[in-house]
Amino acid sequence: DLSSSGLTGEITSYISNLDMLQSLDLSNNSLTGSVPEFLSKLPNLKVLNLEKSKLNGSLPSTLIEKSTSGSLSLRVGENENLCAAISCKKKKNNVLIPIIAAVGGFAIRSVCSISCHII
Protein backbone atom coordinates (compact mmCIF):
# COMPACT_ATOMS: atom_id res chain seq x y z
CA ASP A 1 0.00 0.00 0.00
CA LEU A 2 1.68 3.16 -1.27
CA SER A 3 -1.38 5.38 -0.95
CA SER A 4 -0.84 8.88 0.47
CA SER A 5 2.94 8.44 0.23
CA GLY A 6 3.73 11.76 -1.47
CA LEU A 7 4.72 10.02 -4.71
CA THR A 8 5.32 12.27 -7.72
CA GLY A 9 6.24 11.76 -11.37
CA GLU A 10 5.30 8.88 -13.64
CA ILE A 11 4.53 5.32 -12.58
CA THR A 12 7.89 3.56 -12.70
CA SER A 13 8.51 0.68 -15.08
CA TYR A 14 10.22 -1.25 -12.25
CA ILE A 15 6.75 -2.33 -11.18
CA SER A 16 6.57 -4.47 -14.34
CA ASN A 17 9.09 -6.84 -12.72
CA LEU A 18 6.77 -7.62 -9.80
CA ASP A 19 5.09 -10.68 -11.33
CA MET A 20 3.59 -11.85 -8.03
CA LEU A 21 1.98 -8.49 -7.22
CA GLN A 22 -1.72 -8.96 -6.45
CA SER A 23 -2.71 -5.51 -5.24
CA LEU A 24 -1.28 -2.09 -6.09
CA ASP A 25 -2.60 1.01 -4.31
CA LEU A 26 -1.02 4.24 -5.55
CA SER A 27 -4.01 6.40 -4.67
CA ASN A 28 -3.91 9.89 -3.19
CA ASN A 29 -0.50 10.82 -4.59
CA SER A 30 0.67 13.33 -7.20
CA LEU A 31 1.50 10.88 -9.97
CA THR A 32 1.58 12.35 -13.47
CA GLY A 33 1.71 11.01 -17.02
CA SER A 34 -0.32 8.24 -18.55
CA VAL A 35 -1.22 4.88 -17.04
CA PRO A 36 1.39 2.47 -18.45
CA GLU A 37 0.39 -0.56 -20.52
CA PHE A 38 2.67 -2.86 -18.50
CA LEU A 39 0.21 -2.74 -15.57
CA SER A 40 -2.22 -4.79 -17.65
CA LYS A 41 0.47 -7.44 -18.15
CA LEU A 42 1.03 -8.16 -14.46
CA PRO A 43 -0.31 -11.74 -14.35
CA ASN A 44 -1.51 -11.80 -10.72
CA LEU A 45 -2.78 -8.24 -10.31
CA LYS A 46 -6.35 -8.30 -8.97
CA VAL A 47 -6.64 -4.80 -7.42
CA LEU A 48 -5.37 -1.53 -8.92
CA ASN A 49 -6.17 1.76 -7.20
CA LEU A 50 -4.95 4.93 -8.95
CA GLU A 51 -7.56 7.33 -7.53
CA LYS A 52 -6.90 10.94 -6.56
CA SER A 53 -3.75 11.70 -8.53
CA LYS A 54 -2.84 13.73 -11.61
CA LEU A 55 -2.75 11.01 -14.25
CA ASN A 56 -3.80 11.85 -17.80
CA GLY A 57 -4.52 10.34 -21.20
CA SER A 58 -6.48 7.16 -21.76
CA LEU A 59 -6.40 4.00 -19.72
CA PRO A 60 -4.96 1.04 -21.61
CA SER A 61 -7.90 -0.84 -23.12
CA THR A 62 -6.66 -4.12 -21.61
CA LEU A 63 -7.07 -2.71 -18.09
CA ILE A 64 -10.61 -1.59 -18.93
CA GLU A 65 -11.43 -5.02 -20.36
CA LYS A 66 -10.07 -6.79 -17.25
CA SER A 67 -12.13 -4.51 -15.05
CA THR A 68 -15.26 -5.10 -17.14
CA SER A 69 -14.79 -8.87 -17.01
CA GLY A 70 -14.36 -8.78 -13.22
CA SER A 71 -10.79 -10.08 -13.17
CA LEU A 72 -9.48 -6.70 -11.93
CA SER A 73 -10.84 -4.27 -9.37
CA LEU A 74 -9.89 -0.94 -10.96
CA ARG A 75 -10.30 2.47 -9.31
CA VAL A 76 -9.19 5.61 -11.17
CA GLY A 77 -11.58 8.33 -10.00
CA GLU A 78 -10.52 11.92 -9.34
CA ASN A 79 -7.85 12.05 -12.05
CA GLU A 80 -9.20 15.07 -13.89
CA ASN A 81 -7.44 14.46 -17.22
CA LEU A 82 -7.70 10.67 -17.31
CA CYS A 83 -10.25 8.99 -19.56
CA ALA A 84 -11.37 5.60 -18.30
CA ALA A 85 -13.47 4.54 -21.29
CA ILE A 86 -12.61 2.51 -24.39
CA SER A 87 -14.22 5.24 -26.53
CA CYS A 88 -11.57 7.82 -25.53
CA LYS A 89 -9.25 6.97 -28.39
CA LYS A 90 -12.05 7.34 -30.93
CA LYS A 91 -12.96 10.77 -29.56
CA LYS A 92 -9.36 11.96 -29.78
CA ASN A 93 -9.12 11.00 -33.44
CA ASN A 94 -12.32 12.87 -34.29
CA VAL A 95 -11.07 16.05 -32.67
CA LEU A 96 -7.53 15.84 -34.01
CA ILE A 97 -8.42 15.92 -37.71
CA PRO A 98 -10.29 19.27 -37.66
CA ILE A 99 -7.54 20.85 -35.58
CA ILE A 100 -4.84 19.74 -38.03
CA ALA A 101 -6.93 20.94 -40.96
CA ALA A 102 -7.49 24.32 -39.33
CA VAL A 103 -3.82 24.78 -38.44
CA GLY A 104 -2.73 23.55 -41.89
CA GLY A 105 -5.09 25.98 -43.61
CA PHE A 106 -3.78 28.85 -41.51
CA ALA A 107 -0.15 27.95 -42.32
CA ILE A 108 -0.88 27.76 -46.07
CA ARG A 109 -2.76 31.06 -45.99
CA SER A 110 0.11 32.72 -44.08
CA VAL A 111 2.74 31.47 -46.53
CA CYS A 112 0.63 32.58 -49.48
CA SER A 113 0.16 36.09 -48.07
CA ILE A 114 3.90 36.45 -47.41
CA SER A 115 4.96 35.15 -50.84
CA CYS A 116 2.26 37.13 -52.66
CA HIS A 117 3.71 40.39 -51.29
CA ILE A 118 7.25 39.40 -52.35
CA ILE A 119 6.23 38.55 -55.93
TL;DR?
This protein is of the alpha/beta class and 119 residues long. The chain has helices spanning 61-69, 88-118; strands at 8-9, 23-25, 30-33, 47-49, 54-58, 73-75, 81-83.
What report would you give on this structure?
With 119 residues, the chain is α/β, with parallel strands linked by helices. The chain has helices at 61-69, 88-118; strands at 8-9, 23-25, 30-33, 47-49, 54-58, 73-75, 81-83. The model is unreliable at 91-97, 99-103 and 110-119 (pLDDT under 50).
As a whole number of angstroms, the C-alpha radius of gyration is 20 Å
> SSE order, as H and E?
EEEEEHEEH
Strand order of the largest sheet: 1-3-5-7
Structural classification: alpha/beta
Average pLDDT across residues?
83
| Count of individual helical segments | 2
Number of strands: 7
Estimate what percentage of residues fall within beta strands.
15-25%
Fraction of helical residues: 25-40%
Pick out its properties.
single chain, alpha/beta, three-stranded parallel sheet, 2 helices, 119 residues, four-stranded parallel sheet, disordered C terminus, 19% strand
Question: Helices, strands, pairings?
Answer:
Layout: E1 8-9, E2 23-25, E3 30-33, E4 47-49, E5 54-58, H1 61-69, E6 73-75, E7 81-83, H2 88-118
Parallel strand pairs: 1-3, 2-4, 3-5, 4-6, 5-7
